[in-house]
Design goal:
The protein has 325 residues and is an alpha/beta fold. The protein contains 7 helices and 17 strands. It folds into 2 domains: 2-227, Aminopeptidase, CATH 3.40.630; 250-322, RNA polymerase II/Efflux pump adaptor protein, barrel-sandwich hybrid domain (OB fold (Dihydrolipoamide Acetyltransferase, E2P), Beta Barrel), CATH 2.40.50. The protein has helices at residues 45-60, 74-79, 103-116, 147-163, 174-179, 186-193, 211-227; strands at 2-11, 16-25, 32-37, 65-69, 122-127, 132-133, 136-139, 167-170, 198-202, 249-252, 261-265, 272-273, 278-283, 289-294, 299-304, 309-310, 317-322. It is globular and about 60 Å long. It binds zinc ion.
Amino acid sequence: MVRTSEWLQIDMGDDHAHLPVIVVDSQERGPTVVVTANVHGDESSGVVAVHALDKWLQDNLLAGRVVLYPSLNPRGLALNTRRVPHDGADLNRAFPGGSGGAASQRLAAAIWQSLDGWGLDVLVDLHTDSAGSIPYSIVDRAVALKGDARRILDAKLVELAENSGLTVLLEYPDDLYVRFGLDRSLAGAVVNRFARPALTIEAGPRGVVDWDAVGVMQQALRGVLGGLGLIEHGVVVSDTRVDSPKGHWRRSTTARTRRAGVFVPSLRAGDTFRPGVVLGVVRDLAGQPLDEVRAQSPGVVVSWVDSCWIEAGQVVGTVGIMEDA
Ligand SMILES: [Zn+2]
């Protein structure tokens, strides 16, 4: 086993970003897996999870190599804010970036160039969601691929997500996936531009290092790396995992309010529901009910938004609906 580390220095206009890149190489044949975290600056549990993975791999990596990027947005981490502070852009909609553009575009381009240099086989990107969420794995849409190429990659994406042991959530349908710029997320760009499998893991809340979430990420990463043959490790099914009765859950935007107000969920993350069930109630600040959010199809609550106040028309959380629903 050989461990090396370097720093990427990226010109951001006013200053430079310094991103650590760590390589743990077994010096045996096997895949190259990249693990990234903190593309959203306030999602800090992944930073700690990557550090822990680095240490653990030094005694446990048997094949291939793992390339670790503990923070893709160090200034965002320092300010505990989601976006790239220099220009307020969401880095996770900026890939593959552009060299002459805004700071976030330069950052994305430099990260992309660095990733391209590894000839990576798989990428896993660590995120956090909200205080009211269960951990989950997101399956991207290979919208740029067609026919057999897409079917083969789709199957690999689902297998990766299954190996995390977490609840599996397929992304929005193709048209919404593209409209929301998700093919320009880090995982989405790896899937659609490198045609390589990538996985997004979401665990725990934003803004803090949540030690339970760090543990969940460790377990999920070991399941994924074990499935790829880099370590000896089986899949550990999380006790938070919720299976769809049919196919997989698909991310949906259907849980929205018609009125602005205080949103009070009726269910907890991880609860399943039938059509017509009240997911939550919107009240005014005096406590009077204004609206109910009802389920339109069978599904599962994955997360509720962190904010108490919800604007009219706003999505109140992430729900998964049955794939064919
Ligand atoms: Zn995120």
